[in-house]
Amino acid sequence: MRKSFFFLFLIVILLVACTNDSFKTGDSEYSYLQSDFVEATTNTNAAFVSAVTDDGDTLLLHSALSAKWATKADTTYRAQLYYSRNNLEVVPIAISKVYVLPVSQQPHTTNTPDPMGFTSAWIAKTRKYINLELALKTGKDTENEQSLGVSLENVVSSVSGTNKYTLRLLHQQNNVPQYYTVRTFVSIPTTFAHKGDSIEVHINTYKGEVIKAFIL
User: Fold this and answer.
1) C-beta of residue 76 within 8 angstroms of C-beta of residue 96
2) pTM
3) Is residue 25 a contact partner of residue 19, using CB atoms and an 8 Å limit?
4) DSSP letter string over 119-164?
5) Cα 125–Cα 129–Cα 134 angle in degrees, nearest 5
6) Residue 100, class by beta-carbon neighbours within 10 Å (0-12 exposed, 13-18 middle, 19+ buried)?
7) What is the pLDDT of residue 19?
8) Which of 26, 53, 97, 213 has fewest C-beta within 10 Å?
9) pLDDT reported for residue 182
10) What is the pLDDT of residue 145?
11) Which residues contact 131 (CB under 8 A, 6 or more apart)?
């Protein structure tokens, strides 16, 4: 069984870097900066006012935080939030978008995925997402865009009633130049599976296939 979902996105260098290394060190306002993957919610002005972390903690932001990529009011986005704590207050510093790759039930055929750089994979404490840190090679190109997706390749049921899902991360370079590497975070929702199920994610990297396994 092979089913997949694709979405296109333009690889850009975000004004907000996806690493704490870009912030000042020492005893500055960013010295105690924290970073979490979150489901962040906007208010009627499309500014972020609250978030729920991958650990299940709710954060009420001391001040509303706007981002150019978040344009819808009263909407929940997948994001990486940078913030500091001032006593009990959560002070937002910056927020960057995290791309979501749902496992679609629509059939799709595709060639072997183009290789990509892979850094790490982990599952949220809430078990709602599998997170991947990728290293995509890109360059200045105004016509072509890379694509990412997730293919559900197989499901095996056990006598205990649990399922084992085999997923494949899909990638098409689409002739985008590979001059430099962009650090990219994506999340795969696990809503298709249940507690006790196992999920394998197969990733075609420049160094060969990488397999990451998780249990819900």
Assistant:
1) no
2) 0.82
3) no
4) EEEEE-TTSSEEEEEEEEEE---SS---EEEEEEEEEEE-TTS-EE
5) 110
6) middle
7) 34
8) 26
9) 86
10) 81
11) 37, 54, 98, 121, 122, 123, 124, 185, 186, 187, 188
- pLDDT value at position 31? 57
Q: Quick one: tokens of 186?
A: 């994506």
pLDDT at residue number 87: 82
Q: How far apart are the first and last CA of the chain?
A: 22
Euclidean distance between CA atoms 172 and 204, whole angstroms = 11
What are the structure tokens assigned to 118, written together? 């892979």
DSSP 161-183: S-EEEEEEEEEE-TT---SEEEE
84/97 Cα distance (integer angstroms): 19
Please report the pLDDT score of residue 9 as a whole number. Answer: 39
Q: Which residues of the chain have pLDDT under 50?
A: 1-28
Residue 185 three-state SS = strand
Token pair 């960057």 is found at: 96
CA pair distance 35, 198, nearest whole angstrom: 28
DSSP for 54-122, please give it.
TTS-EEEEEEEE--TT---TT-EEEEEEEEEEETTEEEEEEEEE-EE-----SB----SPPPBEEEEEE
Task: Measure the CA–CA gap between 216 and 211, rounded to whole angstroms.
Answer: 17
